[in-house]
Write a structure and sequence with these properties.
By secondary structure, this protein is of the alpha/beta class. Helix content is 31%, strand content 23%. It has 2 domains: 2-130 and 212-222, 3-Layer(aba) Sandwich (Rossmann fold); 139-208, 2-Layer Sandwich (Alpha-Beta Plaits). The protein has helices at residues 2-20, 36-50, 62-71, 108-116, 148-157, 192-200, and strands at 29-32, 56-59, 84-89, 93-94, 100-101, 118-125, 139-143, 162-164, 180-184, 205-208, 210-211, 217-220, 224-227. A hairpin with a 3-residue loop joins strand 12 and strand 13 (224-227).
Length: 230
């Protein structure tokens, strides 16, 4: 039964990824997200490129860059292309206002940079990622290692146990930019804007996984579409 469930979740991810291709046009600069759902989109974009679609990608992680190169998507940089036409990326949680928690894959910093430079941000996910209130998924906070002990205490003072993310071998997880990640269990986050401001005020916090006002549309599975309220 568990396998069936995993299969159906992956099927929803693939369906959402396929639907996202409708937002990509010839000549577009495309932000390439990170994670299992975004990887589906990168593979499908690679198929379109082999069929003649002309795009250039800006990847949000080393893993997405490697996959894009493998499937034949030409890449560009912010030096060459200051704006991104459309970014396709996943999310760990999506609320009704299209606020997100991201960073489960550890690429939140580059993901937020690329999203902030994008005209359109298409979030793709399985339907289980939709929640009434953010916070069931621990909030990733990217930090400089020097501040780790200090920030664990400061985030605890906000009411959230913060745990240093580690690799399978027990070493601290290191982001592509050389930082560490604290996974912070806030529980329900009814006011993500306020929490974002609190975290941004803490020296040593590089970025957090609250994506507020960045997503344009969310595609969940084969038939759910959510748009940001205007």
């Amino acid at each position: 039964m568990g396998n069936m469930n995993e299969r159906s979740i992956d099927q929803e991810k693939q369906e959402a990824a396929r639907r996202s291709l409708a937002f990509v046009r010839d000549g577009h600069i495309v932000g390439l997200g990170t994670g299992s759902t975004a990887a589906h989109a990168i593979r499908f974009l690679g198929e379109r490129v082999r069929e003649g679609l002309k795009i250039r990608g800006i990847p949000t992680s080393v893993s997405s860059r490697d996959l894009a190169l493998k499937v034949g998507i030409p890449l560009t940089t912010f030096e060459e292309s200051p704006a991104v036409d459309v970014t396709i990326d996943g999310a760990d949680e999506i609320d009704p206002r299209l606020h997100l928690i991201k960073g489960g894959g550890g690429a939140l910093l580059r993901e937020k940079i690329v999203a902030s430079a994008s005209r359109t941000v298409v979030i793709i996910a399985d339907s289980a990622k939709r929640v009434p209130v953010l916070g069931k998924f621990p909030l990733p906070v990217e930090i400089v290692p020097f501040a780790e002990a200090l920030l664990i205490r400061r985030i605890a003072a906000l009411g959230a146990p913060a745990v240093l993310r580690r690799t399978r071998t027990g070493e601290p997880f290191v982001t592509d930019e050389g930082h560490h990640i604290l996974d912070c269990s806030f529980g329900a986050i009814p006011n993500p804007e306020s929490l974002a401001r609190e975290l941004e005020r803490m020296p040593g916090v590089v970025e957090h996984g609250l994506f507020i006002g960045l997503a344009t549309v969310a595609l969940l599975g084969a038939d759910i579409e959510m748009r940001r309220p205007t």
